[in-house]
Each structure stands twice: as structure tokens, then as C-alpha cells.
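Comment thread on ticket #2218

A.B. wrote:
> Attaching the input chain for the structure job we discussed in standup.
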Amino acid sequence: MSLSANPAGLLADLARALPQERLLSQPAQLTPYESDALTAFRARPCAVVLPETSQEVLETVRLCAKHQVPFLARGSGTSLSGGSLPIDGGVVIGLNRLNKLLKLDPQERIAVVQPGFINLHVSNAAAPYGLYYAPDPSSQPVSTIGGNLAFNSGGAHCLKYGMTSNHVLGAKVVLPTGEVVELGGESLEGLGPDWLGLFVGSEGLMGIALEIRLRLLPKPEKYHTLLAAYDSLGKAGEAVAAVVASGLLPGAMEIMDSLAIEAAEAAVHAGYPMEARALLIVELEGETPQVEAEAKYLSEVIAQSGPYEVRVAKDNDERMRIWKGRKAAFSAVGRLSPDYIVQDGVVPRSKLGQALSEIERLSHQHGLRVANVFHAGDGNLHPLILYDGKIAGELERGEVLAGEILKMCVALGGTITGEHGVGMEKKEYMPEMFTPQDLEAMHRIHRSVDPDELSNRGKMFPSGEAPALSHGAHPLEQAGVISRE
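C.D. wrote:
> Ran it. Output below, let me know if you need it in another format.
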């Protein structure tokens, strides 16, 4: 925290600006906000503000700037990289109550929402008009549009439709200094510098979106969902390369390995072949004549890739069961292990087989199981590293393994994150990808918008610490239930 920070003065001003029930400062009130979905890391804010209007967000940011107290915006807390981990002694601005659909124009195919609006609710609102919102992260039933924007979320169908950045047309934003600006417009074509492009994916370092303008798409006329089972991960990876080389552009291509299959099947009973070493889900979508023609070609390509079983969803119910299993995979892995790290890296599609073989080798080397679930179409890996936090040293071994996977991704020509962001988890690996000059250029841009580095301070930029960060005590440790000694 800045030497000139005045948290006591800030709390006094916030108490005058907000009702008591929406300004949380007691330890028991703060505990639920000490972590996000990356639960290994914890920090305690000095206060949590629960605004109900954009004006209250604006006033809170301006008071934080006045008293030099850092702040961060939080939606549903589903960040898997520690991106919404509180700043120790700072302020959490919870945006869940800013959850209104402000506008839906079916003619222009535009929706305007507040940052706390849930991803899936956009498609639900647009459905009566034959429209939907394309980005579909696994957390879409609970994650907010504001959080999706901050981390440029993708999802299973990003292969064909792109990331959040491809579907956000504009945003009304409060900068860390308290200034309100309009970024973008109502068209994908803009004039001048792409300030909106700079803001989307900036992980909250550039301020807080108050209103977000989204692009809607017509719902596909027809889906063709194929499930192929393989006796090796390598064959599934080669099948992905074959589909891409064929010229087909599916809406989605996903792979799950045997551990992910076991977890998903136990959780939602999707009907997956339990003996498979790997499952490949390929979904075509579009106008009926196009999909029917592509389906025949896809069938030929998949048949040549050596699956031992191929299924095609006969109806929408079967299609939804297939996707329910895939979407549930992350949370379902909790059935296999008390704790796990969800990693997020990218490799070129041509290197998928090599990457999976290396992850398997690293898994054996470190003595930890790894479940693999990934967006195969764009090479976005999601290895889930299973460990038991009650066993001394396992978390640290898991982090070392996670770091080696990230380094492997970079060495193969990929990146350290596909859609989960850098946050706290990966910031010490930024130098694996960027030179000191690159990082300083990024920092200069950041400081030009946030000179006091108040907004989501401590995220993304490396601090020079060891990559295995210092963890706050687990809640069960604090309660005396477990001990790591």
C-alpha cells in the first residue's frame, strides 16, 4: 500500500456514502471475499463495498483515489488465476448487484448490460429473438460479463467465434483516477486507436466497466455434434490436426482424457465411454445444407483417425448431455482429488501430441496425477493437477509442475495463458515470454492510465519473487482443523 494511503479516512468517507449493510468491514463479513476460485491464495481487504448503481461505483473509485487506497472489482469470484484475489488492506468492489440488462435491440443485434450480468443470461434474454451470445466459458452459468471482459474469456466455441474481445463493441468505463470514458461504439469498425482492445483482457488494471455493449449472433439453424473415443491421447490430438487440415471450421473441438472422463461421468452421467483414453467432441453448426454436407466430410476424416467408437448426437437432449459432461469437467475433478490446480496454457495445434506426452512425463516425474481437458481447436490446454493440500509439500510440488507446463508451452511456441489470465498465479512466468523491455513498455502504458497503480495492484506484472507464491493460511488451518507441520 502507498505510504500516503489513508484507509481510516476512506472508511469514514465510504460510511457516509453507502448504507451500513453494503459496506462490509468486520472480519466475519470479509472472510468470503478473501479468495477467488484459486483458493490456495488468500488476502484480507480492509473493506468490501456492494454498490447498487454505477454512481456508487464511481464514488467509491474516486474516494479510493483520494485516499490512495488500492481497489479491485469482483464479479462472481470465478477467476482461476487469482485475478480477483483481494489486495491486502485494499477495497473490494463487488459488482454482483449491478446485474441489469439495460438494452436489447434485436434489429441491431446488440445487448447492453451492467458488469454483474451473468454470461448465460445474455443468451437467455436474446433467445426469443433467435439470437445468442457466443462466448461460452465453462463458468457461463455463474460468471459475469464484467469478469469475462477483464480476462477476455473464451469457451468451447472460441475456435469459430473468437474470444470476448470479438463480441464486445463498447464499454463505459471508470478509470482508476475516477474519470469516466466511453470506449468503442456500436460497430466492430472503429476510428482511431483501439482503446477498447487495450481495455478488454487488461485484468482490471485499467479500471472498471460500468456498462458493456455486446454483439449478438443469430442462433445456428442446425448442429451436428460428434463424439469420438480413442485408445490414446495421441490419436485424439492427431485427429484434431486432421480436421483442421481438411479445411473444416467446426464451432468447437474439445478433448478430455481418461481422468476427466471419469470425473465428468461420475458427476453428470453424460454417457461417455468409460474405457476411453481420450474423447474428442467436434461440433459443426450453421445452415442445414452446409452442416449436412460438412458432416459427411467430417465423418470420413474422423474415421481415418483411428477411433474405436464414434457417436453422433441424435437430438438436442443427447447433444446437451455431451456438452454437460464437458462443461462439468473442471468442477467434477473435485471427486477425484481434494485439491487441484487448473492450469491454462496454449501450444500450436501441430504440437498438441508433443505437449500431451510431455505433460504425462512431468506427471510421472512429480508423482502427481494430471487430468487434461482442453480447447483442442486452438491449442488451449487446461491440465488439472491433482494434489492433497493436507499433505506437506504437495501444493508446492503441484506449483512446480504447473510452472514446468507453462515453460513447455512457451518453448513449443505458445503462451502462458489462453483465457484465464495472468493474475497472481502466472505473473512470475511473464519473463518466460517477454523481455524486460517488453514488460517495461506494458508497465508504462499501465501507469499512464493508473499512475498510482491503485486498480488491482500486484497482478500480472512480475515482482521478482519465486514463482511458488506465499500462500495465506488455509481456512481449515486457521480453524485448527488441519496442520501442515
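A.B. wrote:
> Thanks. Noting for the ticket: The first helix runs from residue 7 to 17.
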